[in-house]
Structure formats: structure tokens, C-alpha cells
Amino acid sequence: MSETTLPSIARTRAELAPARDRLDDGDVAVVMTMGALHEGHAELIRTARTRARHVLVTIFLNPLQFGPGEDLSKYPRTFDDDLAICTREGVDLVFAPTPDVMYPEGEPGVRISAGPLGDVLEGQSRPGHFDGMLTVVAKLMHLTRGDLFYFGQKDAQQLLLVRRMSRDVDFGATVVAVPTVRERDGLAMSSRNTYLSENDRQTALVLSRALWAGAEHAEEGPSAVRRAAREVLVTEPLALVDYLVLVHPDTLEEVPEWYKGEALLAVAAKVGTTRLIDNTPVLLGPGGGALPVFSDERVG
Fold first, then answer.
1. ∠270-275-278 over CA atoms, to 5°?
2. What string of DSSP letters covers 101-149?
3. CB-based contacts of 106: which residues, under 8 Å, 6+ apart?
4. Which residue, among 149, 164, 154, has the nearest Cα to 113 in the 3D structure?
5. Are the C-beta atoms of 149 and 124 separated by less than 8 Å?
6. What is the rounded distance in angstroms from the CA atom of residue 132 to the CA atom of residue 108?
7. Are the beta carbons of 93 and 54 closer than 8 angstroms?
8. Rg (CA), the chain
9. Hey, which residues are catalytic here?
10. Starting from the edge strand earliest in sequence, which strands make up the sheet with 274-284, in order?
């Protein structure tokens, strides 16, 4: 389709089914979003286009992913701008349901559980978040009938859990990771960045600097990576660090000092009133350093 052609828009299941049926002449890649699209989402769409004939984008602000103290009403809603990005990137179909379409009987009584992997790192700070995420991802996988599903590396724990769900409950979905997209100053792109003041934004840059500092010591082993990253983080007292971890990418358990191979260096911090996360995959040991994404699709 041309760059000036508006995508088809489906807002209900009844509209989605025939619109999806019309995409029957090749693979369909799906990019799931909560709206407030930015260049990171655009890169997901562009990458999806390289492997699939059609791209379907979902825009759904999922209330199940918001816990106590997280204000759903303040999350940016920018559908017209989102549609402009989808149009620019040649998206074929946008599915933009409301909560009553996704959950016609109210909050679902049965949900997908993230299990122990959903209780650590982000899950420890946001109880129930990953159960809500997996529940809507499972529903959208079924409804969109995609062949490929694209997720960003920035949300590394989400990416791992989606792959584990696909494997553990036999979805058989092909889940593809796309490297984190960053602003020119290194800040990982996120819809939450709109909450940052100018001063907060400068403070937030310490997260990516810490990750890069740690990755530079990957050849020396886990202790050197952790130490280098911490030394950068402590230079910015206005970034209230929740965690800095170096973990195995499949188990999210801290890697021991003898470990060599792929690991995830991840950080979370509150800057002003905004919680931010960032990470970089690293290769520990000889020849080690930062990786864009892990060397394969890990699981699922």
C-alpha cells in the first residue's frame, strides 16, 4: 500500500474479522501497542514490514496492566497522531477496541498468570501487571491471527514472558525482538517520557550511561559490570534507583561470577514522578560487550 493510504480501522470484533480475512495474500505481522506511538513503535512497524507482507497494529490501553497508584486516566491518548504514524509507515490494519470490546463481561474472571517470572523486577514493583499484560496479549494473538508478533527489547521482561507463554501453553507464535530505539541523547524511547520535565530528562540520561558503562566491562565478568554501572548511577542522586541487576535472560536470576555468555543488564528508577526502565543485553566473557538483542529468539 502507498504511504498516503489510510489503514483500515476496526474497532469491534465484528469489524476486525472480515478486515483480517482480507489480508490473505501473505504473512501478517502484528505490533501491539497501548497508543501514544513514538519512533520506537515506528521502528517496530518498519522491522515487521521487512518480514511480512501485511502489518496490523493494535492500539488498546489495557486497564488490567495498571495497578494501585498507577493513574490510567493520565496515560496519553493520541489516536489521531497514532493513526498518522501508522499511515506514514504503511500499516494495513489498525485494531483499536475499547475495554468493553475486549472485556465484554467486565474484568475477566480467568487470566493468564505470569508465574514466578512475573513476580520479580518489574513484577515486584507492579503486582499483577504481567498477568494483565499476558491476558490481553493472548486475546490479541487469537483475535488478530498474526503470523509474526513484534516486541521491543526495551521491555525485556515483557518480551521474555510473551515468549514463555507462547511456548508453555502451545500458542506456537513467532515472537520477534527489535532492538531498543533511543533518542539522540541515549534516552530509551517510551510513551512515559512525555511526563518528564526538562530537568527530569537530563536526570534520566544516567540510566543509559550506566548501562553502557557496565557493558564496557563485560569481558571482565559480572562483578566488573555491576560495579561500573553502579558507579555511574550514584552520580545522579535525583534518580531513585529501584533495581540494577545483571541476570540470565531466560530465568531473570542474578548470574554468578563464573558465568560467561548472554546476560541482561537492567535498571529501573523513578525520575521526578515517572518510573523508567532500561536494559541492554550483554555478552560476558572474552570478546564480550553490548548486544542489540539476544542471538536467537530465546524461547517460544
1. 95
2. HH-TTSS-SS----GGGGSSTHHHHSTTHHHHHHHHHHHHHHHHT-SEE
3. none
4. 164
5. no
6. 10
7. yes
8. 19
9. 41
10. 239-247, 261-271, 274-284, 289-290
Beta strands 261-271 and 28-33: pairing type?
unpaired
pLDDT at 298 over 60: no
Cell numbers representing residue 105 in the block: 463481561
State the Cα–Cα distance between residues 59 and 148, nearest whole angstrom. Answer: 17
Q: Which residue has the cell 510473551?
A: 162
For 280, the grid coordinates are 541492554
Domains along the chain with CATH numbers: 8-178 (3.40.50.620), 196-289 (3.30.1300.10)
Confidence band (pLDDT; 50, 70, 90) for 82? very high
* CA angle 80–145–294, rounded 5-degree value: 85
State which amino acid sits at residue 81.
D
Condensed to tens digits (0 to 9), the pLDDT of residues 120-176 reads 999 999 999 999 999 999 999 999 999 999 999 999 999 999 999 999 999 999 999
The bridge status of strand 289-290 relative to strand 174-178 is unpaired
Closest CA to 259 of 208, 225, 298: 225
Question: Computed from CA positions of residues 160, 175, 274, 59, in that sequence, does the dihedral angle turn out positive or negative?
Answer: negative
136, 162 Cβ separation under 8 angstroms? no
**Eight-state DSSP code of residue 82:** H
pTM as predicted = 0.94
In the block, residue with C-alpha cell 469491534 = 12
The dihedral formed by the CA atoms of 174, 176, 255 and 130, expressed in degrees to the nearest 10: -80
For 53, the grid coordinates are: 507482507
Q: Are 219 and 287 in contact, with CB atoms under 8 Å apart? A: yes
